Amino acid sequence: MSDRFPENNVVSPSLPWVKAPSPRFSVPEVMHRNPLESVSRIHAEFDGFAKDYYVVEFGPRSGIIAVSDGKILLTAQYRYLVKGIAWEIPGGRVDEGETAADAAQRECLEETGFFCANLRPLVSFHPGLDNVQNLNMIFYSESVEERRPFAADPAEALAIAWLPIDDCVTLVLEHKIIDCLTVSAVLAFRCRIQRQL
User: Fold this and answer.
1) How far is the first Cα of the chain from the last one, in angstroms, to the nearest whole number?
2) Which CATH number fits domain 61-196: 3.90.79.10, 2.40.50.140, 3.20.20.140, 3.30.390.50?
């Protein structure tokens, strides 16, 4: 199992080189903290202007595209911000001392009863580069085994479904899959399949 994602390097032959500024930063001042997040204020002095950053830190998150018979596994979960059900890939917070791949594997088993082996890195991203510290790492596995029958749990997943990747892409484009981890995972996995053709 690998947590190896390519280094985030903006240098690319497809993009022009841009010199990054060299601001001076204050020591982060924690404004709020709870068991799941913290909010810090950082003052930055650039040449000619100043800016305050308010950064919310959630810690890393991982998810997994579990693939079986050409279909991917989705979970139905209640989400407060949409006041309803969201269909998502299995995933969640990376616990202290746990690798992102281990977390993806654990979350899939906890939420669905399916165990994924031979995880491969798919894509990683930051949901907000100015104010959200929440690295998301997505893996995929084509070695999926049912370890226990699915049991609905209001604290985890209310239902599961296996859908062909093309159906998932359609749901993304129809704004029916809207979770950023899942949208990123579905589109990245579809691109990966396209490159293999």
Assistant:
1) 25
2) 3.90.79.10
